[in-house]
UniProtKB/TrEMBL annotation:
SUPFAM superfamilies: HAD-like. Pfam families: Hydrolase. GO terms for molecular function: beta-phosphoglucomutase activity; hydrolase activity; metal ion binding. Its EC number is 5.4.2.6. The keyword Iron does not apply. It comes from Prauserella cavernicola. This is Beta-phosphoglucomutase. Belongs to the HAD-like hydrolase superfamily. CbbY/CbbZ/Gph/YieH family.
Length: 244
């Protein structure tokens, strides 16, 4: 029993916050990046980047979309710049590069831990014969999956690099999940989406996936339901005891 409808033949998992605890590391990197920028711009009126900002504007989105969406919430406009911008460039690309460099250093220092309940669930899904894919906006997915020992489960992966290379729209658009389902040869109606981010749950609903599991890591169960989750759990292991 894996807590999914019998029509589901594939599971598409977000990475940070669903399979691994790296969402907290991303929040840490975003906060340092944005706070440095805001201090330089706002001076004595500095209003720090908060966990609410992370949830509302950044979580689950491709890196550059997160930069644009958060800055727009503060009525800040920066030039786009380009992929070759240095981390010190005051551009959308520069801010994104600075965050990515910082999260890479944090991952090296602190390591990667998978959630124990998520590992149990992946093992159960694999035993049940369902295909497993990972869909993440992170460009660090390969190294994170390897460091967490989860790459052995994954048959298909759509990450930040894939999104950029293929010109896919980021979450809350369903493109990345649909691309992963396509890699697995599964129709959206027969795939389940697992997401902790509101934007990711919206993507699952928009793509008309067969089941959307909201993972409540940020005390937002009500919002996950409102955005389209079929069910909400605090830990994936709870699904091993449920039948929809």
């Amino acid at each position: 029993m894996i807590g999914l409808p019998s029509t589901i033949t594939a599971c598409l998992f977000d990475l940070d916050g669903v399979l691994t605890s790296t969402a907290t590391l991303h929040m840490q990197a975003w906060k340092q990046t944005f706070d440095d920028l805001l201090r330089r711009r706002d001076g004595g009126d500095f209003q720090p980047f908060t966990e609410r900002d992370y949830t509302a504007y950044v979580d689950g989105r491709p890196r550059l979309d997160g930069v644009r969406t958060f800055l727009a919430s503060r009525d800040i406009e920066l030039p786009e710049g380009g992929q070759d911008d240095s981390p010190d460039a005051v551009t959308v690309h520069g801010v994104g590069t600075r965050k990515n460099d910082l999260v890479g250093r944090i991952l090296e220092e602190q390591g990667v831990q998978p959630y124990a309940g998520s590992v149990r669930y992946l093992e159960a899904v694999e035993r049940a014969g369902l295909a497993i894919g990972v869909v993440t906006s992170s460009a660090n997915a390969v190294s994170v999956l390897s460091a967490a020992g989860l790459d052995r489960f994954v048959r298909a992966r759509v990450d930040g690099n894939t999104i950029s290379e293929r010109g896919l729209r980021g979450k809350p658009a369903p493109d990345s999940f649909l691309a992963c389902a396509e890699q697995l040869g599964v129709a959206a109606a027969h795939a389940a989406v697992f997401e902790d981010a509101l934007a990711g749950v919206e993507a699952g609903k928009a793509g008309e996936f067969g089941y959307v599991v909201g993972v409540n890591r940020a005390d937002q169960a009500g919002a996950l339901h409102e955005r389209g989750a079929s069910t909400v759990v605090d830990d994936l292991a709870e699904l091993l005891e449920e039948s929809p």
